[in-house]
Specification:
347 residues; 12 strands; Rossmann fold
């Protein structure tokens, strides 16, 4: 959201980003756009979503604006009713295919509730954008809306990467959550002659920590925890291989296009990633990765060993990162974002 809001602010839009205040929230940094946090009594479950949408709705009723942009399904009702009452333009920014997320599809009653909200609200948001062509197609098939695709990509580097890794370490960066194949990645490291660094935090962090100890892999796997976003690019550049695993549990996972896929590309490091539609589409154009069909531990280990041992293939993928990074970057996606908003306000 910081990237989107900054780009809009640079294009002379007056932007207000609204979130929520938690007990452990870090202090907001000054940005080119305005920021507001709403406090909630409840912090999870139905009561949280209901309270947050009510607080957001009443807040939106009294601010100066020309348009409301709902970020994902969990803010869409507040934005819809506020835009309806105030007769303002409304936009849907779908970072996920929300009703197909693992934590939603695994709970039938929760899925039914969110699906009702999606069926009610999404058709009423004719202007919208999402993060992959597959998700955009799904919205078109379900609700006959034509959404733009604006992918979340890193900024293109001003010069080519010249960092040479000191050691052949494998990098996983991102949320340490379920459905990322991390449990199998840990086990796969028994068969890989390299070090794995895991940067990030999440609901699976303690389980992964315990699993590393159970398998006596402390000497091969380092849990690095959270790092500030500004520090991550230099860490990524020092890695030898990037890894991006996704379990195909729901269409949201199958249609995903993770930020780290492009972060590795921008850093100039080959990677192991999934043979899902969006990744395959990019890799067919610029071969930057070894694709795997599942998060089976043997398949993960085999793919990592291919990159570790096949110097010719490794160099080929590394070289391909340079032209790919010139195509897949935020500077290119930003043009579509600005064009989208110009068209919305032109009507």
């Amino acid at each position: 959201m910081q990237r989107i809001c900054t780009s809009l602010a640079n294009a002379n839009y007056d932007v207000l980003l609204i979130g929520r205040k938690l007990q452990d929230s870090v202090e907001l940094k000054k940005e080119l756009f305005s920021q507001k946090r709403l406090r909630c009594f409840f912090n999870k479950g139905f009561l949280f979503y209901a309270e947050y949408n009510l607080r957001l709705f009443f807040y939106l009723l009294f601010i100066r604006t020309d348009a409301f942009c709902a970020i994902d399904l969990d803010t869409i009702l507040a934005c819809y009713f506020a835009s309806l009452i105030r007769r303002k333009k409304r936009i849907y920014d779908a970072h996920e295919l929300f009703t197909e997320m693992k934590e939603i599809i695994s709970r039938p009653l929760i899925k039914k509730t969110w699906l009702l909200i999606e069926k009610f609200a999404v058709p009423k948001f004719k202007n919208g954008y999402t993060v992959s062509y597959s998700i955009a197609e799904e919205f078109k098939n379900r609700y006959h809306v034509l959404y733009e695709v604006i992918r979340n990509m890193p900024t293109k580097k001003a010069s080519e990467i010249t960092v040479s890794p000191q050691e052949k370490f494998i990098l996983y960066q991102g949320a340490v959550n379920e459905a990322r194949g991390l449990e199998n990645l840990v086990v796969a490291m028994h068969h890989v002659d390299a070090i794995l660094h895991i940067y990030g935090d999440g609901n699976l962090f303690e389980k992964i920590k315990d699993l590393i100890h159970q398998h006596h892999l402390q000497h091969k796997i380092a849990l690095k925890g959270k790092v500030v976003p500004q520090a991550l690019p230099s860490i990524t550049q020092e890695a030898y291989i990037g890894i991006n695993l996704v379990e195909p549990q729901g269409l949201n996972q199958l249609y995903s296009l993770a930020n780290k896929f492009f972060d590795y590309m921008q850093a100039g490091i080959p990677q192991v990633t999934m043979s899902f539609p969006e990744y395959k589409k990019v890799n067919d154009a610029f071969e930057v990765a070894v694709l795997i069909n599942s998060v089976d531990e043997n398949e993960i280990a085999t793919a990592l060993n291919v990159l570790l041992n096949d110097a010719r293939l490794y160099q080929k993928l590394k070289n391909n990162c340079t032209p790919a990074s010139k195509v897949f970057n935020w500077q290119q996606e930003e043009k579509k974002l600005i064009s989208f908003y110009k068209n919305v306000f032109a009507v």
